[in-house]
């Protein structure tokens, strides 16, 4: 029991002691303390502690069942991280992303490269901001010097490129080592071009390379999530198909026109040759007739022709 709770019992015991009995003071005090009973029944003697907080719901304990935010550092300095590891979670920009680091929309700083975490300041960028970066070597320090060479990790090894020997155009047997087949139509599409190479097994056969065969297969693209975007792609695809069909139709009409033009030109050439032949025959007949009149005057009669009214038949022209 506290000392403050003894104040009232001692005062009650001291009031019962007579002032005249100075010699029996210690004995009477002992008897008074023996008769004193401190318990739950004697409230006046014990005393009561008053409440330190206001009642009737004006004070509430803090709710401890909330979801934790789990903010703060997730990776300490010189810790090894890989791309995507969260380094620091925060509300607001207490730390800023530095070398090889990025920041999400909730201000979470994460690694963009494989390396070691470094916390640093960069007065050249900002005098008060704190940055978090990732370096490739653990012994490196940030920030890098102002005009230092940029450090990148490409996960590649320097290997000299060997030049392939030139492929001869003709094989030892004298046939070409490569044949190119164009597409059909007046303007063939480059994607329809096929390159056939001579086999090296001595079979004198041509075959297409496997990776070129793979390019001939047209795969369907993955469907997009938005219905509007899917409809736009469908309209674009149908428009491309219509344009291709129109080009094929125009190509067919142009080829038919070229065939008709060539047929007309051949017919005109045959008619021209026929007229020239008739003209030459008429000139030859006129010349022969003049010579026959001269011989008739001298008494020489030319032999009769088998068909006096015969003429060369005109050439047959296909309509």
Return the string of H and E elements.
HHHEEEEEEEEEEEHH
Portion of residues within helices: 25-40%
Roughly what is the average pLDDT, rounded to an integer? 81
| Strand numbers in spatial order across the main sheet | 1-3-6-5
Task: Outline the low-pLDDT stretches.
Answer: none
Question: Beta-strand level of the residues, as a percent range?
Answer: 5-15%
Distance between the amino and carboxyl termini: 135 Å
**Main sheet: strands, sense, barrel:** 4 strands, antiparallel
Q: Got a strand count?
A: 11
Task: Calculate Rg over CA atoms.
Answer: 57 Å
How many H/I helical runs? 5
Assign an overall shape.
elongated
Structural class: alpha+beta
Describe this protein's structure.
It is built from 5 helices and 11 strands; from the N terminus they run αααβββββββββββαα. It has helices at residues 7-15, 25-35, 43-46, 210-216, 227-297, and strands spanning 72-73, 80-81, 86-89, 96-97, 101-103, 109-111, 115-121, 130-135, 178-181, 194-198, 206-208. The relative contact order is 0.04. A hairpin with an 8-residue loop joins β7 and β8. The chain has a 4-stranded antiparallel beta sheet with strand order 1-3-6-5, with no helix packed on it. A 4-stranded mixed beta sheet has the order 2-7-8-4, with no helix packed on it. The longest helix has 71 residues, at 227-297.
